Every structure is written in C-alpha cells, then in structure tokens.
Amino acid sequence: MTGFDLPKELLLGSATAATQIEGGDVNCNWYAWSLAGRVGEGESSIGGAGHWDRVEEDVALLSSLHQECYRMSIEWSRIEPEPGAWSREGLAHYRRELELLVAAGIKPHVSLHHFSCPQWLQESGGWLAPDAVERFLAFARRVVEEYADLVAEWTTINEPNVLANGSYMDGDFPPGAKGDLVGYFRASRALIEAHCRAYALIHELRDARGYPEPTRVGFAHHLAVFAPKNALAAPGTALSDFLFHRVFLAGFVEGRLLPPLGLGRPFGRPGANGFFCDFIGVNYYSRHLFTACARPPFAAPGVDPEATDRSDLGWEIYPRGLFQVCEAAWKRYALPIHITENGIADAADARRGRFIVEHLAQVRRLLDSGVKVERYFHWSLMDNLEWHEGYGPRFGLVEIDYATMERRPRPSARLYAEICATKHVPEYAG
Ligand code: FCB
Questions:
Q1: What is the SS3 assignment for the chain?
Q2: Is 283's C-beta closer than 6 angstroms to any atom of ligand 1?
Q3: What pTM was estimated for this model as a whole?
C-alpha cells in the first residue's frame, strides 16, 4: 500500500471511558459488579489505569502524541453519588480535565453514558427503573450546564445495543440477565427515549449561550459487519442485523420506534436537520460471520476459526468493514460520520500499526467517495479495563504497567502520533 494524505479537517485522536481508566470510584455499578466476582478473574474497576490521579500527566501524554481530539466519558456516579446529590468534587475534577485539554489545543468529545451508572440506579432497576430516563436527563442537564463553555461535541449514550445485549441477553454486564428478550427490548426503548430527549435538551441548554463552536450531539453506535456463512444462515443474519443495528439507528437517529419496540415517533422534536443526531458516531471493530443456528440479536464477536487475521480476543481484523458500515449509514442519512472507536487488542503491538494504517486507508476511500468523515478516535489511548473481560486485553496505544501505573507509549503510538502531526499515512513497512 502506498502512502496517502488525509485532510486537515478530519481530526485524529483517541478515546477512553471513565470506568475503564479512572479507578477509585466505589459508587459505580461496575465496582459492585467487580465485588460480585463478575470482572475478569476476580479483578476490580477500583484500580483502572489510575487516570483519576494522573489527569495532568495523561493530558501531557495526549499532547506528546499530537492528538487533535480526545473522546472521554463523565462517570455519572462521580457527579451524582447519591440520588439528587451533586458532588462538587466530581464536577470540579472534570472541569479541570476539560480545561487542561482545551488549553492544550485538544478538542474534547464527551460521552454522558458509557455503559456504567451509579449503583443506586442499578439497585432500583438500571435502565428498567421507571424513572431511569428522567434521572439520566437530570444528570445530563447538570453536566451540560457545567461544561457547555468547554465542550461542543457530545455523545449521549455509547453503544446502546451492546449495553442492552450485555445486560439482558448475554448476562456479562449488570444485572446479568440472560436471554431476557423483554428486558432487552424495554431497556432499548428507554435508551432511545433518553437519547432523543437529551438531544433536544443539550441543544436547548447550549445553543442559547451563543458559543462560537456549534453544539453537536450524536450517539456512538456499535456497527459490525454481519455476514452469513452460507445460504441457510441468511435469514438469521438479517434478523440479527435488524434487531442489533437497524432498530437502534431508527430510534436514535429518527426518533422512531420499530417493531418489536413499538411504533411511531413518540419522542419530541428533532433538530433542524430533521434528525435526533448531528452526526453518527461509529464504533467499528470487526466482522461477525453467522452460522444457521446463531441466536439473535447477537452472536459472539467475529470469532471465526477460518479467519487468518485476528486480534488477541479472536475478533477478525476486517478493515473493509469500516468502509461498508460507514457508507451504509451515510447512504441512509447523509449525516456526518464520527468514527468514535476503532482499535485492536494486541498486547505484543505486533498488528496495531498495520491496523491503524489499513483502517485509515478505508477512511481515505470513504472521503474519496464523498462520505463526510469528520473524526477518527482510536480505541484506546491507553490499556484499560475491558469490562467483564478484565485487564487482560490490551487495547492501548500506550501500555500501562499496572504494578506501577507507568505509561509507556508503544511503537504504534509513535506511528499514529506522526500521522496525527503530519496528516500523512506512510506506506506500512511492518
Ligand atoms: C466497545 C466499548 C469500549 C471498549 C471497546 C473494546 O464495545 O464501547 O468501551 O470496551 O469495545
């Protein structure tokens, strides 16, 4: 592959999520989940990557890696540790972090919800609690009022499909229900309502203040390529694709409930563009090959013994899929695309450099075919807690030594830093 350039308007950066890197929070549902022995092999979110106490160091790290933008999340339980009680310390902490980013010239992108919630909400039913949506909107209001001057770009909810599936179908996420389709659909519906109403709320709160940078709100959708292994698997693949991808696009982008969630457009007023998103956030990792007996709505991620190129988690490396999912979303809605996550578990850092180059080549193809891709956030800035998988999988550009919390940029981080600084993607030499 020969080298190529990327336009300066496409901002390149990296992403993290609070629960996965911060450590030290005892009020979050993933801490309780850790105590219940459900994280890795008895691991705990309490350590994370020690980011809570290393914010200055990590912003300096982002700068040294020439990151133009940074996607992070705000931990709800840090802001509202008890129902209705706002933590001054939590609010001040994130203000400082965001100020550091802005001062360093790094554009922040904030996710309000990235899989975790306060344990008090989990105990009252999580996303199935009757007041879950109102609670989320109160939290969103508090956060946006607080940081509107610093943050223009917002993700309301990260990967609602993975969240609902993990919580109610696979049982890997709290509350650990398995095969509970009713729970899956009810949680999905609540997440759609929460997003659509938060979309309007964030605009209402921020637009009136007249900041120079326009408010942009979206969600981060986990989009995978779903492909049947043979003709017999085609109907099941199509059904899974509908339940796992399409239902969420219709809900989050159009404010529309599709069966089996419901019918109609019940969730208030869209934006001036007619949608409940100003961009579509795409989290892309892999292709999933379905056999005839795969059960909807989801199958094990991309684990195909025949695939030759796989990550440490067994996920197939399939760069062309990034083109396919982004192009399909663009054809459907013509909304700008922000690639909010894309990355690889690769402890040896043997494949990450090539992975980055090959996926950015797909971004180049997308731009060449007229698809408006505006952001690329690599997952992840640093090694972190991979949810129920624990600390084993290593997704970081930067290696974390968990014994000392030392940060060590991997060779791929140097390569990516050079790409961010020059907007030139070199021919990959291996
Ligand atoms: C996505 C999550 C992110 C991270 C990556 C590997 O599903 O959004 O937090 O765990 O997978």
A1: CCCEECCCCCEEEEECCHHHHCCCCCCEHHHHHHHCCCCCCCCCCCCCCCHHHCHHHHHHHHHHCCCCEEEEECCHHHHCCECCECCHHHHHHHHHHHHHHHHCCCEEEEEEECCCCEHHHHHCCHHHCCCHHHHHHHHHHHHHHHHCCCCCEEEEEECHHHHHHHHHCCCCCCCCCCCCHHHHHHHHHHHHHHHHHHHHHHHHHHHCCCCCCCCEEEEEEECCEEEECCHHHHHHHHHHHHHHHHHHHHHHHHCCECCCCCCECCCCCCCCCCCCCCCEEEECCCEEEECCCCCCCCCCCCECCCCCCECCCCEECCCHHHHHHHHHHHHHHCCCEEEEECCCCCCCCCCHHHHHHHHHHHHHHHHHCCCCEEEEEEECCECCCCHHHCCCCCCCCEEEECCCCEEEECHHHHHHHHHHHHCEECCCCC
A2: yes
A3: 0.97
